[in-house]
Design brief:
The complex is a heterotrimer of chains A (about 260), B (about 500) and C (about 300). Chain A is an all-alpha fold. Helices cover about 75% and strands about 5% of the residues of chain A. Chain A has 9 helices and 2 strands; from the N terminus they run αααααββαααα. In chain A, helix 3 packs parallel to helix 6. The radius of gyration of chain A is 20 Å and the shape is elongated. Chain B is mainly beta. In chain B, strands 20, 21, 22, 23, 24 and 25 form a 6-stranded antiparallel beta sheet that branches. In chain B, strands 1-2-40-39-38 form a 5-stranded antiparallel beta sheet, with no helix packed on it. Chain B has a 5-stranded mixed beta sheet with strand order 12-11-10-9-13, with no helix packed on it.
Chain lengths: ~260, ~500, ~300
Amino acid sequence: MIRRILNAYSIEWTKQSRQMFTFVGPAFVVLLVLLTPLQYPLHHDAANDYGFIAYALPMSLNFFGFLMLLVYSASLVATELSTGTIRTLLVRPLRRSEFLAAKMLIGMTYALMLSFAASATVWALAFFLGDLNGIEYGGELIYSNEEMLQTFLIAMLLNLLTQFAGVAWGLLFSTLTRSAATAIGLAVGSWLLLDFLKHPLNIAPFLFSSYLEQTWTVFADRCAAFETSFFPDAYYGIAASTGAAVVCFSLALFVLARRNLGS
Amino acid sequence: MISALICVVIGAVVFVEKEMDAIVVGRPNPLTGQPSLNYRHADFDQDGLADILLPDRVLLQRAGEFPAALSVPLPLPLDKPEYDVFDNKLYLRTGDRLEIHRLNGMTWERILGQNIAWPDLLPDENEPPGEMDAEKTHGTLGRYLYDLSGNGVPEIVVPAIEGLHVYANEGRGYTAKHVIDVYPSPKVIFPERTLVWPPEARAITFPPTRLRFRLFLDGNSITVISRSAGLGSLIRRHTSSWLFDVERGYLPRDGGLAASVTAPIPAYLQPCRLNADSTPDFAGVRTYISENSLVPEQIQELVLTTDGGKTLQSFRSKSFQTLCVFVDFDGDGDLDAVVESTGLYKGGLREFLTRSLSERTLPHTIAIHLQDAQGRFSKTPDLLKKLSIKLAQPPFRDGPLFTEYQNGGLVNITGDLNGDRKRDLVVRTHPDRLSIYLNENLAFPKAPSRTLDIAPDARFGVADVDGDALSDIIIYREASLEAGTSRHTIVHFSRRTAP
Amino acid sequence: MASCIRLEHLSKSFGSTLAVNDFSLEIEQGEVFGLLGPNGAGKSTTFYMMCGLLRPTSGRISIFGKDLHTNFLEISARMGVLVERPSFYDYLTVAKNLRLFAKLAEKEVTIDRTLDLVGMLHVSDQKVGTLSTGMRQRLGLALAFLTEPELLILDEPANGLDVEQTQEVVRLLRRLADGANVTIVLSSHMMEEVEALCDRIAIMNEGRLVTCEETEALISYDKTRLEVLMDTPETAARRLVQEDWVQSVEVKRGRLLVHLHEPNPHQLNTFLIGAGYQMSGIIPRRRTLQEFFLKALNK
């Protein structure tokens, strides 16, 4: 099963890597990061520029990049349904669950691409145009460079988990309709609606996207020498994201398994 | 006006609700927790119960109540007087006269009346005279009586340009005794750039001088704290204290002068008393907007020093204004730090936007850092209380309650409601509800100990109104009228037992 | 012969519409089987169920003696499928498309040989999006053949192909069936192609199996309709029309067409010889699949 999923994933990757659309998202987040110094100037002035990283990443990756991720993942299955290629695929020795798992992996790869593109750019800018020294407050070193890097990596990992939940969300809507445009509209629209209504509906703690920028706020706080911790908020984020990913993927599987692929 | 209405029992505390429109409780001093009040306490009728001295009358207390029939107007000479009270006697100071009255039954009995030419008062930058004062039909409550000699007869101290004028009563009324020159040297203020062209604009500007200092009187001790330039945005605070010898005509006692100067400290640190030791303490709150976040997070930084600026301690939080940053939380006589945080910014920009647009409930955290015997505040909070504050409208609607929240007016930890010397917490958790959390062994219970109703357009304060050493909760509503402001106040008196 | 496909009481409904109704069929190994029916008869639905794209509402599908749904991976690995109007990744080349799909089968494949088989080797580096409908159909066939399957399920294999290409495909399939013992199940609107290729034909209508016959049995000769090759058909016609065992007589393009009441060509032969006519032959008219099809559908 794992081998077939990896096979299907490799096929998916071959397909996706030959489409311009795949690279639009990462290019967009990179562009956003590159434009950030206009808003948050970087200088070699001995002032610490970790703040630039904390400022640029959530904006590019989680504010705009997440929308790209939803668009991308919502189109993954719907495109196959609309063109009919799913029939050509699923008459081969490949289960629908394996096909969907490969799609999920591709969505996760896309999330990684977005994160890597944004992170690499933001660190490069901060490193070459600014100064990255340890975080001091009141003359005391609060966080060393190593600790800041460690914080960044933890933040990124936790953030990826929430992004993966977003992939599963997009994938669910991708299985619901044959039109990629409709799937994208539904995935983005329903998420925005739910995100907006989550507080009046009292579901905010249970919605994965409530934790999307949470990890970056910890990084930002540490940039400002606040002694903050990822936990316990991260526990809620992990639970909500994992839960959402499992539920959305299972629902997508349920829908796809019962889907009439004959016409 | 005064009506005993409802008694509510909470634990060992009972609330008795009364209408008292005359009572005005303002914001507390953030560094001391003392609210600004429009009244004083004194036992004018000598019945052992504190009466309330208002700027226009005295409300006499009977069995915990202030009956309307026991409201005594203050003696009002032609000139609007400045009232002060000492030893249950009322002192009136007008432009050229001093009177002392004693309450006899329901009337004021003048026990002293004399003319005195008071010196010109030193202008106080912090309290400019309001325009409304001129329209007032009554006097004001002032503070000019100090028992420097410790003989039970207060001296009158008037700050004037030459120094502190001291008037003493040696049996035949008050007479000027001495002008105590304790002021620091005035500083030259460099004038604005002067023009040399055109010729008619040329002028020689004499540089003015300015005198800025803080003066504290305590017993026969006078402390003056002034500032001098330090490094960059830092300043040095100079502290001089004198012990006065009354026998020698209020001259400084030999060896009674103590002077100290701090290390450079931030200019916004103000002198205050955080503990009982003789070292002057300094503390201040600075707010700024975070540069590391997409969200314009307001950061509040409390900086303090209890050792004359040698070491600075600071506490930062994402917070709007905190009503009071120091209270004696554990009742040990030393002030403890209160650090509040708002949950409005939690979760990043998108969360901030959705929360601000659609959420009425705001997470709020109160952290208490206790001060130890060495004057150090614990780095990690000794108490952490998480609250949910429900507003009438989401923050972006910018309703009056959110404005009040931003001003720190929804959380009050200044009062001791049950008399255990420990601070209790009063929070407006809902637009129409005050939740009271009694301090139980330096912890607040999860659920409120009691709730009180509050009108959606009302505000609240905490102060001891009836002088029984228990803080009371004052709920008031203000309405702007053409003729001024009308105020409706309900005081929830704390009582140890049910009446 | 062993059974390759067994459909047992297969039904499929879409909401209230019953697309396939209690359909049972058995196809043997090495057989070339044609499934015919008008539009909406349920052919494609049956095909989709056979290749696992649709799950039957009821009934059972066994392929290679195993249940399709519990052994899908094993069965689909031995199966080549051409769905109607096959879709590919238009932005990839022909060879790349085949390579991708072959990867799923986890079998060694020779892309060039397969493309050569369907006459597409010259476009192997061309993007699929630039191919004509006929070429895409051939690519679909190539994909079905790619893993050298034991069973081919072909839905309308001649769709979009011209006459010559259709003939090529028919020859290819026949060769596969005869040479490699591949079982082929196909559906088509082209009766001649089915007739030429299939060993057995089933006709479906309104979701039900109408008839299922050996092709040879269907394609018999009608001995009541005879064509007589002779020099003087007109005079013979005048004589024959008077006989009561003759239903009708017609002369068309110099040929005598006789319709008898009974299938008795011998009687006609005896009569014409007895009457002194010179004949070069009597040919019974051949029944077409189309006639059988229409008859089966009562049209």
